[in-house]
Write a structure and sequence with these properties.
- It is a single chain.
- The chain contains 11 helices and 9 strands.
- The chain has 335 residues and is of the alpha+beta class.
- The protein folds into 2 domains: 93 residues; 215 residues, BirA Bifunctional Protein, domain 2, CATH 3.30.930.
- The chain has a 7-stranded mixed sheet with strand order 1-4-5-9-8-7-6, with helices on both faces.
- Helix 1 packs parallel to helix 4 and helix 5 crosses helix 10.
- It binds 3,4-dihydroxyphenylalanine.
- The site of 3,4-dihydroxyphenylalanine (DAH) has 12 residues, from strand 7, strand 8 and strand 9.
Length: 335
């Protein structure tokens, strides 16, 4: 700008700046453009500085008059900017509140919580019932050797259970346990009677799959060794257990054979209009006790192996064992 600007000219420049600044400030829509406008109006190279820079042509008496007016205008613009900034912040906040408004009365979408598998629940229910009778929980490995799975349980070399068709054999004389009964041996090796244990776990057999058979299934093993235990204790315990689990359901004790118990029985319950075997049991065979250096004249006991899948099927009216392993949520969600 030229140095020889007249007082009138400067006054009208200031007046125009005042008017335009007011207009621009009220037109602002956000805080960022406000800062840009402030620099444009009041910055070092801004419009007000330019007007002040052209005061050189004024007389000594005129300069303070313009200077004062310019200063007033500067304060005025600063105040307007401050007010506008506050307004914009409020506007922003209100918009944000509106945008993020939460309708606390809206119905919940619901969280899809998972829950335990019915087989686990059933197994724990069985274990809990025996714990209530003073039994302790015990567990053994799923990979076993011939001794614990067969030999120590008095299962002879030529017994069909040892057949390749029934047992999954692994390398180095190892196998997948075909029942939870080896836990009996492991426990008796480590503890002296009296003992009462309950041992849940997975077992494996080369069974053809059908509605009641699966190559992997679950058992709960029960073992009680003490002085003076006889078949009435076994029957009383099993009947009390079945009643607690199933309520009043028709039950059948059927004489059976297991190499590690004598006498032995199988328990059937009613399922879909027919008898279904759900557990084996018996008095621990004296030769099993002798093999563990326990005197069968002094110690006796009973044992049982409970089929978890079948217990669950009977209790909940499930028609096919395969439903447990297909992970169909329409089935699982019912439990
Ligand atoms: N281990 C047997 C099986 O899997 C079930 C069984 C029968 C377990 C009699 C026992 C028992 O403890 O006494 O077929």
């Amino acid at each position: 700008m030229s140095n020889n600007v007249s007082l009138d000219q400067l006054n009208s420049d200031l007046a125009r700046l005042e008017k335009e600044a007011e207009q621009d400030i009220s037109n602002l829509s956000d805080a960022e453009s406000l800062e840009r406008l402030r620099i444009h109006l009041l910055g070092k190279k801004g419009r007000l500085s330019k007007i002040l820079g052209s005061m050189a042509g004024l007389s000594k008496s005129e300069r303070p008059v313009v200077g004062q007016r310019a200063n007033l205008l500067k304060t005025q613009i600063q105040d307007l900017l401050k007010i506008r900034l506050k307004e914009l912040k409020e506007k922003n906040l209100n918009e944000l509140i509106e945008k993020e408004r939460i309708d606390v009365t809206a119905p919940s979408i619901g969280m899809p919580f998972g829950h335990r598998h019915p087989l686990i629940t059933t197994s724990e229910e069985i274990v809990d019932l025996f714990c209530g009778l003073g039994y302790e929980v015990n567990e053994g490995p799923e990979i076993e050797n011939d001794y614990y799975n067969f030999a120590a349980l008095n299962i002879p070399q030529d017994h069909p259970a040892r057949d390749m068709q029934d047992t999954f054999y692994l390398e180095n004389n190892l196998l997948l346990r075909t029942h939870t009964s080896p836990v009996q041996i492991r426990c008796l090796e480590k503890n002296s009677p009296p003992i009462r244990i309950v041992a849940p776990g997975r077992v494996f057999r080369r069974d053809a799959v059908d509605a009641t058979h699966s190559p992997v299934f679950h058992q709960v093993e029960v073992l009680a060794i003490d002085e003076g235990l006889d078949f009435s204790h076994l029957r009383g315990t099993v009947m009390a257990f079945l009643k607690a689990f199933f309520g009043d359901l028709p039950v059948r004790f059927r004489a059976s054979y297991f190499p590690f118990t004598e006498p032995s029985a199988e328990v059937d319950v009613q399922w879909r209009g027919k008898w279904l075997e759900v557990m084996g049991c018996g008095m621990v065979d004296p030769s099993v006790l002798e093999g563990l250096d326990l005197d069968p004249e002094r110690w006796s006991g009973f044992a049982a192996g409970v089929g978890v899948e079948r217990f669950c099927m009977v209790k909940h009216g499930i028609d096919d064992i395969r439903r447990f392993y297909t992970s169909d949520l329409r089935f699982l969600d019912q439990f």
